[in-house]
Structures are given as C-alpha cells and as structure tokens.
Please model this.
Amino acid sequence: DAKTTQPNSMESNEEEPVHLPCNHSTISGTDYIHWYRQLPSQGPEYVIHGLTSNVNNRMASLAIAEDRKSSTLILHRATLRDAAVYYCILLYSGGGADGLTFGKGTHLIIQP
Amino acid sequence: DTEVTQTPKHLVMGMTNKKSLKCEQHMGHRAMYWYKQKAKKPPELMFVYSYEKLSINESVPSRFSPECPNSSLLNLHLHALQPEDSALYLCASSQVGQFLYGYTFGSGTRLTVV
Model:
C-alpha cells in the first residue's frame, strides 16, 4: 500500500488559516487522497477527498500537487473546535471495501 | 439518518464474562467495519463485512467474534478477554466503492477489561 507522511504536530492560532501537509511520493494513478480527523473522545470524521484537482467543501479545501506526490489540507479559519488529529489516507480505487489504514496523523493544536 | 450508532458507550467486563458490542446504521451502506484504538494511537482495522459477509479478518484473536445479522447491524461478541484488550472499539460503515465516498464512524465503545 502507498504510504503517507505527515508532521507529528502543528500549532496555529484561532481564526487564522491552517495548512496541513501530507507527502505521498509512491502514490499510484488509481489512489484517491482522503482526509479524516478525530476530535478528542470521538470517532474519526470524514473531511474531504480528491484525485487530481483541488477540492472545496464546507469544512475545508484540498490542494493537490500537480505530480500528486503531496497534498495540503487547508482550514480557512481555524476555531478551537478544529483541534484534532488529522489523517491523510490513500484509497485504492480498484478495491471494494478495504477499510482505512490510519497512519499516526498530525495533531493540530489551536491556540486562542 | 447519517449516523452510525454504537452501544453501549462504556463497558466494564471481567476476564470470564461474555459481552457484545452493537453497531447500527441506516444509510444503506453495504460495508461495515470494526476498529480497535488504544490510547494515543491511530485506529487499527479488525474486521470488514461486505454485503453481510466477512471479507477481511486482520488476524484478530478468536476471543473477538464478529457477526453481521443484516445490512444495518454489526455485532462484536467478546469472550475471555484480557486486560490488554481494553481500548476504544469503533464501528464504521461505507459504500462498497468507498474511494468515492467517505466512511462514517460511530463514537465508539470504551471497553475496560478487569
């Protein structure tokens, strides 16, 4: 399985944008890039996903490098409620129900 | 309904007890999953059910026994557990072609084995 690399932790201030990087240099053309987050004492929550083009939804934006070897999750205006562990995960599009393989993720700390 | 509901939220059991965890979803998802999460670690996949049939068992000890009675319900039967099995047990569901859609997770059952 293609792997992802994320920083262990990042810190940001409330109401400022946050850019969470993810490296996936061995990504294949059939892998989708998914992001999930896990707030304290909760199950993981789907954030966003993409294949090649940048994507936006109500929670965040996903910027994908042209060579697809890296991506960045962008939280446009962080709040204290965005403090969580963020996971970048590759999903093979040729699979059925394979399950998510979580790495260590990035622990995002938001300062008031 | 866009939720995965897990019961109970907390469970304390002795090593000789038999208990069951329950997971329910009504989103029409045909894939359901059990994960185990130890403190400050990422979730680890245990079992995958696809169209109510067990498709993946990640070498989980036999003291954990999954069951999928129908497309909306997933159970995890527990028997003769060890203290090191204490963890947060998470259930999730998805469309079978999950790369196009997100997974939906429940809030988990926090299990303590004494």
